[in-house]
Every structure is written in structure tokens, then in C-alpha cells.
Amino acid sequence: MARGILATRRHPEDVWAWTWQVRGWLGLQKDGSQDPQRVPHLAFSRDQDAGTYAKGEQSRARPEAPRTSISQCLRNPPRDRRTAVSDYRTSVSAMAPKKPPCLPSLLLPLLTLLLPRADTRSFVVDRDNDRFLLDGVAFRYVSGSLHYFRVPRVLWADRLFKMRMSGLNAVQFYVPWNYHEPEPGVYNFHGSRDLIAFLNEAAIANLLVILRPGPYICAEWDMGGLPAWLLRKPKIHLRTSDPDFLAAVDSWFKVLLPKIHPWLYHNGGNIISIQVENEYGSYRACDFNYMRHLAGLFRAILGDEILLFTTDGPEGLKCGSLEGLYTTVDFGPGLLSKSEEWSWGGGPSAMMFIFHLCLLSAADNMTKIFTLLRKYEPHGPLVNSEYYTGWLDYWGQNHSTRSVHSVTKGLENMLKLGASVNMYMFHGGTNFGYWNGADEKGRFLPITTSYDYDAPISEAGDPTPKLFALRDVISKFQEIPLGPLPPPSPKMMLGPLTLHLDGDLLAFLNYLCPQGPIYSILPMTFEAVKQDHGFVLYRTYLSNTVSEPTRFWVPNNGVHDRAYVMVDGVFHGVLERNMKHKLFLTGQVGAKLDVLLESMGRLSFGSNTSDFKGLIEPPVLGQTILTRWLMFPLKVDKLVKWWFPLQLLKRSHPQTPSGPTFYSTMFAILGSSGDTFLYLPGWTKGQVWINGFNLGRYWTKRGPQQTLYVPRPLLYPRGALNKITLLELENAPPQPQVQFLDRPILNSTLHRTYVYSLSAEVQSDPEPMQLSGH
Question: What share of the chain in percent tops pLDDT 70?
């Protein structure tokens, strides 16, 4: 025990770990309160309306407000079950306890020495010595990014534990506004959106938190985390001091920030710092009044003690930094920031080109970037807030990778400089549903469903060679937890399975849009009909007979993002933003023209303008502008989840289906279940659901991603039937079959997983891992 105590004094992060053990022995929960099951007289719950503590629920998963902390018990033991929050500040003499003391008296001296009191917990910048101080002791964080919104809730603990066992002492993550406020004034913090539960899981894993609440987050997430309903005001200027935008931001943060206030480090929580906005220097506006407004709002709600910071690439520091906010930088092993890499793909300006070449030709590029950072933050620790372990993927391009050597070498060089580093990403996860973002590099580039990112922890949560190499580097600079990482999760193979035709999409229109269509002379955007994502069907009728093939097109690149065109139910082809602009159609007068519009994700980075979806301009057939449109906002997810299981529709099916069509089948798992990867050979493009859960987009024909990750918790185990549903938007294969594989195919290449021994002393030789990249 004595040796353990001495060790924790050398390493303050281990003090924190050891204190959690002490809290467990004493029946204390992770939020500092005592476990009601062990100490019933301290069973408190928060009355949100009255703002007082009252006898009631004893949930440990979602502490909405700070409960009785150790330091509070040391100073002010509660009088009874209804001790008010304000009573914690009254004098000890006025609070004679009617119940037994909070802690066994024999352990009070030990706890006084080992556990920092609430009013002494601090995370600050020591500018004189260019370092952080955690509770007055020199501290450097080695952090990793993980996005709770890309990982099923039941897997949060697994991913966070693996991060801690990798040697990290902090986790960094965004809070996507659009994930929590789907409609103005409607908030969702339940299930996989339970932010407080994720903070609690991070505390259990002994990880500090670096929080990035936006309001804009990028993250390759739809619209950079901004809610699409903002665009219902078409003239709004996003990420500026536009009054309409600020009013929405203020309303959101007045809900979000009070929730996280109890979790700030000096309040007994695990949040050590909070980022204001995100890479704002890469945005065209450069509106300092907007940044000052955000900083003032954060301070007004969160107080002056929490460390607020900004993050930008080297070229964005001028517009992204702000006095009073700590300035950090981001760049990857190639010494490019995210914004530079985005700009490079789209044809950078001459200045950016010269800057790029200068960085690559310098002998010590990392030092140059940190030297540039010193112009904006002369004193304090060096911080790289986004050190890229890999990169994102676009549909139609190669799967991105970064070598183990380049990533580990860059990390080691930064740690030698004494820098604090966050690795983006440490675990990427998945863009389930419709949540992927997009970029514009000369053309519109939607991001794949997989957000594997070539990260140290794979999309399926498995350790990779990159993780073990990074762990070795980290161990040179700070102690890492003892013991092996968990082995890769069990994987499952199944199939092939033959899918059955349910019917074309148009046959289900009454179920997809039960409220009926919206009529307008000119087509309306998704935002105007309050459809945030997915699909809208546009319908009109030909006013003249078109006997010869006639050009059908939408001016000004007005298809956002893909249009599936049908005449009297017959599929004629696709129009695509920036890619394919015209089709040739024929039809009789009165023929029904249907155009199914698909949103492929809104622009999520940098100088993104308001990315409206749908038919942005009225289509033209020959020389005729088509008018008198019916818009059907489609609720596809509700149909798949509720109507299909009831089999409400029975009808004959077309012999040779084409165009948007539903397929499905049932299957049982006869053996043991596990994580798996859905492979759709021969299929073209569409959306897939497993047991009603929207797994995401597939685009087998374009790639690079060929499989979709299926977490084991989505599957019903042995003895129950599972259902898979596909909406194929173009053409199904002659044999409509799918398979479940035990390995992903992210670039037409099987990714093999290392297998490690459970022994701490002996590790088996790893199997080779195939990777492909640029």
C-alpha cells in the first residue's frame, strides 16, 4: 500500500485512479456521492423544478446535478434526506447531523491527504512554466477522440476502457446540436443521446474529458452538427453574429451548458477544458463579434474557472483565436491541418500552395508550426488538439490510411517537446442512418457510412497494430495501466441470404406519407417542407405529349443531391449533383413524372454555405419549365420499423423491378452471435435496416466501402428471427442475395485483425493485416 501511495504522488493521474478505488471501498459512487444501496440515509435525487434534493430515485447512470461529494461530506454532513443545495454552504456548527457521519472516522485523515477537496480541484495553465497544472501538479494530457453519437450506447464502456488501457488519460468529443434538438425547443438526451451517461462512463473509465460543444463541430457530421431547421429561414447566415443564428444558439446553450456545469473538474466532475466553436479560422466569415458572443455566453453560464480554448490549423489561427481563450493548433503526421487537407483537395490558393510546400520542405516542420502557434499564445503548454491518426473516406475514392510509423513518430516528437496531444480519431465509429456529412472539393463529396478513419481502435472496436505502437510510445513518457487490452470481439459469418421483393417505393406512398402531399407551383426544398434528411418525392404531370426523347434537366446544378426519375412508374435514370445533369424522357400528356430526391448529407466543413436539399430549381423538360408540384416528405424509417412488420400491404409485385424498391428477408442465428459485416455484392445503392435500425447507406457500385458494420447488440440471438430490409434505389442483382462476413471490406480489401494473447507477459505473433490506401 505504501509503495502504491508513493507511486500516485509521482503521477497525479494515478492519484485519481486510486481515489476511485477508495470511493468504491467506502460505498461512494463515481460522482462523489455515497451509494444509496450501501448508505441508505444518503439516498438523494434532484427535484429539477424546486432545485432541491428529495428522497426518491437513486439512478447512478445519469447524475443531472452534483450529488454529495466527498469534500462536502467532510465539511458539511447533511442533516436529513431533504438537505437543500443552499444548505451545503452553511456553517458546520449549524448542521448537527441526525444520521451517522458520511465516512468512517478512522479514514478521514487518510482521505484528507489523498482526496482533493472540491474547492482545491483545478485545471489551469501555468504560463510561467509552459505547462498545465492539475490540482497544482504539473500535468500533460495524452487524449483520444471518440464520438458517442457514432457508437451504440451499450458499447461506450468497452471503447472507453480500451482507450484508458492504451495509456490515454483523457477523451475528447463533440456534442452535435442537431443530434439533441431535432426541432426548435424539442430536446433529446435519452438512450444513445444521453450525454450525461457518457460523461459518467468516461469517469468510470478514469478518463478526463475535453469537451467540444460547438455550436458548429464539423466532425464530418451532417451540416457540421448544426440543425437543418435553421435553414427554414433561408436568409440566415450561419456561424456569424446574425441575430437569427445567435438567438437559436443562445437557446440551445441555455439548455446544454447547465447540464454539463456539474461535470466541470472544479465542481467535482471530469471536464477539464471546453472548446469554443471549432476551427473557426477556416470559415469565410471571420466574425470576431460572433466569437466574443460565444465566449461571453460560456463564461456567463459556466463561470470563470473552466479553461476555454480554440482549435485551428496553422492558417486559421488569425481568425480562429480570441483573446481570453487558450489557443491550440491541429495538424497530422504529414504536418497538415484538417483545413489544409480539405483545401488541398479542392485546388488551394497560391498562398496556401506556397505554405504547403514550405511546410513539407522544412527540416523541422513540427517546430515551425508550434513556433507559429507561439505568435498567438506566447506562453503556456503546446497543444495539438487534432493529431490525425488516419483520415475520412468519400464515396468514389480510395480508403484513406496513415502508416503506423508516421503516426507514432509524430506523436513521439510532440511528446518530447512537452506538448499535450489529442489523437483524432482514436476510435472512429459509424455514420449510422443519414448522419454523414459532405465536402465540396470542386464537386460534392459525401462521406461514407464507415467512419473507421484507420484509427487505432477499428470501427468494430478491435485493437489494431497502430494502437499497440502508440501505446509503446506513450509508455515512454508516462505510466500506462497494467494488463493486456481485451481481445478482438467475436465475429460471425452467415449466408448468403436471399431477399424477397416487397414492392416498389411508389406502391407504399400512402404509408410513407400518410399526411398527404404538399402542393406548390414551384418545387420546395427539404427545409421548406420540414424534412431534415432522407427522401422527398416530387410529383407532377406532363402537360403535353413528348414523343421524341427530350432533355430533362435542372438548371444551376439544382439537384441536391441525387434524383431518381420515373415516368408512370418506370425508372429512367439518375441525376446527380455536380456529376450527371440530364436525362432524355418521353411521355404522353397527363403522364405521371416522379422525381425521388435523396439527401446525401449536408456540407460539414469550412466555408460551407447553407446547403439546402431537394430540387433547388424547377426542372425543365425541353423548353418547358415544369410547375404544379406535389411534395411527399417520406417517413421511410417509420415504414420499415412499424408498417412492414405488420404486413399491411399485400399486392402483386413487378416481374423485373427497377428503381427504388424494397426487399427484405428473415433469418435466424443458429450458432453463437457476434459482430459482423453486411456484404451486398451486385447491389447498386441504397439504405439498409437491421431489425428496424437504420444501419446506413450502401453504395456497392461506387465504393470504396463494400460492407456495413453490424454490431452484435443489433442482432437477436439464437431462437429469435432477425429481419433485414433494403431500399435499393437503382438496380438489384439478378440473385438478390447478401452475406454477413467476419471481416470488413473498406476498399475492396479484407482488413485482417490482430489476435493477441490474454497473458500480460506473452503475446502471440500477430497475423498480417492487409491495408490499402492512397
Answer: 75
